[in-house]
Each structure stands twice: as C-alpha cells, then as structure tokens.
Amino acid sequence: MSKWKNIICYGLGAFGHDSFYGILNTYMLMFITSLMFSNGSKSYTTKMVAIVTMILMVIRIIELILDPFIGSMIDKTDSKWGKYRPWIFGTGLILGIGSPFLFTTMGGMSTSNGGLFLVLFTILFLALYLVYAFKDVSFWGLLPAMSLSSDDRGFTATGARIGSTLGGNIITVVYASLLTFFSDSKNFTVHGWFMFALTIGIVELIGSCFAAFGTKEKDSVVTEQNAEKITLKQVFHTLFHNDQLLWMSLSYIIYCLGTSTTNNFLLYYFRYVLNAQSSWALVGWVGMVTGFISIISYPTLAKYFGRRKIMVGALCVELIAFVIFSFTQTVTMTLVAQVLYTLANPLVFMVLLLTIADCVEYGQWKTGHRSEAATSAVRPMLDKFCGAVTTGLTGIIAGLAGMTGNATATAASISTHDILIFKSFCFYIPFFCILIGMIIFIAKVQLDEKMHKDIVDKIAQNIKAEDSNN
Fold first, then answer.
1. What integer pLDDT is reported at residue 419 of this predicted model?
2. Are 255 and 352 in contact (CB under 8 A)?
3. Is the torsion defined by CA of 276, 278, 282, 287 positive or negative?
4. Which of 78, 282, 365, 447 is most buried as measured by Cβ atoms within 10 A of its Cβ?
5. Model confidence over 12-48: pLDDT tens digits?
6. Distance CA 324, CA 340 (A)
C-alpha cells in the first residue's frame, strides 16, 4: 500500500509542479510580450520585452550554476520528516502565494516608470526563481530516495509523468477559457492574467502538500552511506567523475535546446502564423491523451525492450514529427505532427529521469560518496539552462517577427520572410538538435537496468563487508 501511496501522491505533486512550470515558461512569456507593456508605444514595447526576456535568461543561467550547491544543502537536511519533504512543502507555499504577482504591471508602472518597474520585477523574479530551484531539486530528488529498485522507480516515475503530462497540458486546454472568464472578455486583461496565475499557484500548492505529506523516503545501508559527512567538494567530485551522468546530460541538453524552443514558440505559431488561436486547446487535448497513452505504456515497453531501445525509438518518432512540422502550415497536419511528438516526448523524459536516478548509485559506486539531491539536480539544471536560452530567444524572435503587443500584432501583419525565420527556430533547428542528441546517446550512454542492478548489489556487498571488518 505504501508503494501505491507514493506513486499516487508523487503523481499529484507532479501535476501541480508541471502546471506551475507551464505558466513560468510558456504563459509568462505570452503575458510579457502581449500585455505587460501594451500601454506603451510599439518601439517602447519591443525594447522593454527584449530587456525583460534577457533579464529572465540571465537570472536563469546564474541560478542553474547554484543548483549543485542547492543539492548539497538539501542532501545535508536531517529532519524527522525526511530530507526532501520539508523543502517541497515550504517552497510550494511560497510559490503558490507569490508567483501571481509576476503577472502584473505593478499598477501601470511598467509604462509610467519603466526603470523602477524593471528593478522591482527583477528582484521579485530572482527571489521566486531561487525558491523554485529549491522546489524543483527537492521534488525530483525525492524519486531515487523512495526506492533503490529500477523497476519501482519506473512505476513511480510513470505516476509522476502521468501527473506531469496532465498538469502541463490541462493549462493548454483551459488557457483561453480561464483567461476569458477572469478577463470578462475575449481580449485578455492584466487582471485576467493575475487570476489565471493565482489559480495555477493554488493547484501547485495543493500538489506540493500531496508530495510532502503523502510520500515516504526509504532507509537502507545504501542510501545512508556518507549521508551526514559528504562535503561540497565531494559532491562536485561525484558529479564530475560520473561519466554516464555527463554523457546523458550532453545528449539531453542538445535535444532539449531544440524541443524547448518549439514548446515556447508553438502558441505563437498557432496565434500568428496559423491564425488559429481558437484551436490551441486542441494541442492540450492531444498532449493529454497521447501523453497518457505513452506513459502508461512505458512499463510494458520497458519490460520487453529496455530503456535504450525505447529512447532511440522515441527520438526517431520525434524526427518524423518535425519533418511534418517543417513542411506543413495547416492546423490539421500540425496537430498530426503534435500527436507523434507528444507520443514520443514523455518516453524520452522517462528514460532521462530514470537514467539520472540510476546515476545516483553509479556515482556512489565510482566514488564511494552518495549524493541524491545533487545528482538529481542535474536534470532540472539542464531544463533550466534550456529554458533560460529559449526564453531570451523567444522574446527576441517574437519582437523581430512583430509578434508583440496585445492588439497590434495579427496573423495578417506577419510577412512570409518573418514566418521563414520563425519556422527556422521553431522546427528546422530543433530537428538537428534531436538528431545530434540521439547520436550521442547511442554512442556513449550505457547505463541500463541490468547494469544498475549489478551496481546496487556491489555497493551493498561492499558496505556490509566494511561493517563486518569494523
């Protein structure tokens, strides 16, 4: 029963966590480019959008450098509630209450006093993003702490990914409806965006409560090795001597730079290129249905094929999806490509998540030091780096293509040349990023389920032998 309670509560936590991630990445950018500076002139709006998106990018890059230090702090946490759960609840509470204030113009200050607005916005975003970093590292660090078994981790990660898929895509489904309801108009307002963000913030907080109070960390001789005395120097030693972690990270970061760009741009693509913002909810429904099918099939696929074959197969399907994306400009075929993409993408994430979780024991075996949170922090670091780069890129490309302002930019105002530039970043370049990431994975990542089981057995035997000698 404890196993299923972990899976369900962790999945509900992931639902709230990825709902929040969605508004922080995709929808916050839409608010910035459409309404944050809409009372100013077109040149002022373009300039301020570029400045804000660069601020977001710089803060995210600076923060991700801190993730190993954050992981080290979390690794040293010793409480009766465990290592991760106090962090998950505390940070979830702060984010749920504070994040909606990012979706304001601070009483019109964004246009009446742009300089002061930029200072206050930077301070607020920096504080909340640091809190989010602690939440992200502690939430995903909880996965390897709940079990040492690759199979158990697979089931728990399946529950988490179902929650993530539903949480991330439900926003796409309700985005227009909620904003219309809160704005009391189809022309979205600042008040509507604030209430939209507050709603998602509450969902995030509820999910944090489930993850914090409904899961249980597992104690064993393997997880307790060096638990109290590991130093920051040893954390970095463990990370940099973990070759499988490094190769998996390189493969994923190249892949993620491409797909994150597509994810950020896709709403702009529907609104400004396809002139079909009303069809955007279909993307959410496609993501939920195909993502759910993909995730629940993972345990069966893993049983018969193993992680490596799943990863390569999923990446090949994504390449086909991007070929369709690149050579079509209709809603129907775009949705067909989206079906293929959202069938494959959750499987890629599952393999990444479980490989990095197994890298905890791989690094422990190679160095003699166990660092759950710091190793698990690598995956959020990669996502945040990609998010930082693509955030800055989105603001710049949206400005260059005339996709800023709440009313001035329309599909009819976007030229063929601008669409070509936009599609290059949205589809063409990501195709090659996926291809390169797949080549690196095939050539260098060797850590699979069997190898991990052998490593766990060896660690346990070594610890027992040391204890008997002492």
1. 80
2. no
3. positive
4. 447
5. 999 999 888 888 777 888 888 888 887 878 788 888 8
6. 10
CB-count burial class (<10 Å; 0-12, 13-18, 19+) for 279: middle
- Give 465's contacts (C-beta < 8 A, 6+ positions apart): none
Overall pTM surpassing 0.85 (yes/no)? no
Q: Which CATH architecture has domain 2-216+228-456?
A: Up-down Bundle (1.20)
Instruction: Please tell me what DSSP assigns to residue 26.
Output: I
pLDDT in tens, 207-222: 999 999 988 877 654 5
Residue 456 amino acid letter: V
Cα 72 to Cα 29, 179, 231, 376, 439, distances in angstroms: 31, 40, 8, 11, 32
CB 402 within 8 A of CB 380: no
Domain positions in the chain are 2-216+228-456
Contact 28, 103 (CB under 8 A): yes
CA–CA gap between residue 186 and residue 172 (Å, rounded): 16
The two tokens of residue 146 are 């709940």
Residue 406: other Cβ atoms inside 10 A: 18
- Helix H or strand E segment including 67: helix 67-75
In sign, the C-alpha dihedral spanning 35, 40, 41, 43 is negative
Alpha helix stretches (DSSP H) within 147-269 = 150-183, 190-214, 232-240, 243-268
- Tell the burial category of 326 from Cβ atoms under 10 Å away from its Cβ (0-12, 13-18, 19+): middle
* φ and ψ of 82, to 5 deg: 105, -170
Instruction: Find the farthest-apart pair of alpha carbons in the chain and give their distance in angstroms, rounded.
Output: 77
Dist. CA 65–CA 60, nearest whole Å: 9
Q: What does the pLDDT look like over 322-339, one tens digit per residue?
A: 999 998 889 999 999 999
